[in-house]
Amino acid sequence: MHLHLAYPAVLAALLFCVGVYGVLARRNAILVLMSVELMLNAVNLNLVAFDVWLRDSLHAGQALTLFTIAIAAAEIGIGLAIVLAVYRNRGSSAVDELRDTAESAAEEPDPAQEPRQAKPSQKAEATA
Amino acid sequence: MTTTTLAVLVPLLPFLGAVAGLLFGHRVPGLVRPLAVLPTLTALLLAVLVAVRQGGGRAVDAATELTPTGSVPVELALHIDGFAALVAVLVGVVASCVQIYSTGYLREDPRYPSYAALVSLFTSAMLLVVYSGDLMVLLVGWEIMGICSYFLVGHYWETPEARAASLKAFLVTKLGDVPFLIGLFALAADTGSFRVTTILARVADGGLDHPTLIALLLLAGVAGKSAQFPLHTWLPDAMAGPTPVSALIHAATMVAAGVYFVARLLPVFATSGAALVVLAVMAAVTMAGSALAALAQDDIKRVLAYSTIGQLGYMTGALAVGDRGAAVFHLLSHGAFKALLFLAAGVIIHVAGTNSLAAMSRMKGLRDRVPDAYWTMTVALLALAAIPPFSGFFSKEAVLGAAEHAATGHAVAPTAAGWIVLVAGLLAALLTAAYATRLWLLAFHGRGTEAPDHGRQPVAMTAVLWVLAIPSLAFGLSVGVLPDWFDGGSLTPTLTTSVLGTGLALIGALVTYGAWRHTTALAARVPMGAVAASPGGDGGAVEAEAIATHRPAYGDVASAPDPADPGRLLLGPVHRHAAAGFRLDAVYTALFVRPVQAAARLVRFLDREVVDTYVRGAGTAPRWLGAAVRRAQTGNVQTYLSALLAGTVVLAVAAVLVATAGA
């Protein structure tokens, strides 16, 4: 018997959406990584389902799934290692607290810096 | 050696001397003086040899083309006729005298090496102008003289007067040189050559299409170089340079280049009657105005400077009536006695410690301190006033005779030009004698305190004065021989102009003497006189100090408020204006300087306030935009991803919508 394609496709879509939600909304880095796994698995499900649906003689979908699983395993390994390192450094693995790259107020361009910026331009004028 | 080789060496030797002086002058101080004097002296000997070999006969012509130019060829050409040979000898004599004199006058000057090298370079450029047979090569010498003059006028660049004077000299002469260059191009376009001989041959065939235009353009350059009205204003100010420079450049040679140039190309000018009349008017205004101004000056060198302008006016006057023989005759005699006047004035300034005639007139016994300068200057002043039998008499009478000749319609030049030159020349003869007498009386017959004693003058300085006194005394004897060197026209004085000219000169001298007798009692009652106190210094140091202190001491660089000045009595209400050179500088300030400055201010405003506003705006807008965008950079990766997702969804929806709409 054949399962209709709609079932695995809808399931994959739901899984993907749950993953997206997890990645965008969860604070805990480990849960974010798990959400990424959900998205990957949604993709895997799609690959297998369409492989069967299209009756691909080479089963490229299934082969690609194996690759995806392998890469996902490697990725989760590295990801967990990073999370662990962050946790050891900071005592927390909350994603929204890791804001070192934010535009800080101190780096706003203040008027005192302008003469220093003006000098090279003057020099450029002189040599032009 | 052939005459051509000798002639090539004449300008080349001083040039090599100048190069060597500039290269080694500061490193080997012992070499400076030989390098300054010897090449110039050798060039003089060679110039004399060239003159003897040329002998007033057929012109020596030689030319070599260095490289094809594609259009009108520029050649290294020599064209030595009698004029060139004699003028080169004059240049050599004066330059040698000046170099020897400078070794004494500037013996302690730290900048003497570069000074001597520049004088040599200048001499070489002048000799190039004299010998060159190609107008482009002539122009090279012409411009080198201009830049040398700029450097040498600014020799005392510590004083603001010298700085201003050097800039003024450069700018005013360049103002004339631009039309001059255009005139040369126009001349070459009409005749197809820069060679003097070719041009003259074409002109003789009537091959000139625009004679008046070309002549007037060339006259602008001549007026600038030869200090003719209205471009003469730089010359009196150029007296801020050392005295030997004034003697060489601003009396005997460079200013004579303009006259010499016109003499060389006189047939070109003679094809245009209008140009000759313009030249005559220029000469007349120059002669009369400069003589009046000379009568009112207080600085001894400025008196001589205005006198130079006036004597150059005589030469251009002679050219305006078409007699280049008389013009070059006056050039030669004037070169000798004016160089002598300046060099003697340098000695006097050194001894008196001042350049002010008002201060000198309150010094007793100045003539006993410098007997050499006194006697030679007397000779030179007599020559300047054209008293027979001194050289100036013969040359000036040659000019006046030529003018009379033209006025009575016996020459190619328009009669009007003849009358203008004759009347102005006679008036100038009267005034020349007046200011010469005034200078002599004020400088040597002062009453008051004893003149300061600075010891004996160096022999190098006094000997040169006597060398130059010989031609001032006796050059008039050559009046019978000179026509063979020139065009052949007689230069012997005619009776009418001689009597008129000499009579007017005597009247001028006697009137001035009377005025001086009248005012001299006043001098004792009005004490004046600022004297530079550096008895040990050389002439150059004393003069620099005298120039720098004239304005602080008397309130003006040209005149002093001296009621005992005979010039003040003679000129009456005109004196005030004459002292300021008839306010021509003020007119130029109003006409040119102020508008240029206003335009510069406008451009500055437009640049700073208008253009820069756009530039600043172009920078400010992106900065504000950047500040707004930076706020989105929170550091929260999840926010970025959300924005990325939202963007992707929007793009995907848009793509689908576009695809379905197109379908």
Care to describe what's here?
- Chain A is mainly alpha-helical.
- Chain A has one domain: Helix Hairpins (Orthogonal Bundle), CATH 1.10.287.
- Chain A has helices spanning 6-25, 29-54, 60-90, 114-127.
- In chain A, helix 1 (6-25) packs antiparallel against helix 2 and helix 2 packs antiparallel against helix 3.
- The N and C termini of chain A lie far apart (80 Å).
- In chain A, 9% of the residues are buried.
- Residues 110-128 of chain A have low confidence and may be disordered.
- Chain B has 663 residues and is mostly helical.
- Chain B folds into 3 domains: 1-203 and 227-271, no CATH class; 275-557, no CATH class; 592-662, no CATH class.
- Chain B has 28 helices and 4 strands.
- The model of chain B has no long low-confidence stretch (mean pLDDT 85).
- Chains A and B meet through helix 1 of A and helix 27 and helix 28 of B.
C-alpha Rg of chain A, in Å? 25 Å
Strand content of chain B: under 5%
- Strand order, largest beta sheet of chain B: 1-2
Number of helices of chain A: 4
Quaternary state reads heterodimer
Derived structural class of chain B: mainly alpha
**What is the correct CATH architecture of chain A?**
Orthogonal Bundle
Number of structural domains of chain A: 1
Poorly predicted regions of chain A are 110-128
Distance between the termini of chain A: 80 Å
Helix content of chain B: over 70%
Beta-strand segment tally of chain A: 0
Tally of strands of chain B: 4
Global outline of chain A: elongated
Name the chain pair whose interface involves the most residues: A-B, 14 and 13 residues
Main structural class of chain A: mainly alpha
Major sheet of chain B, described briefly?
Answer: 2 strands, antiparallel
How would you state the average pLDDT of chain A, rounded?
82
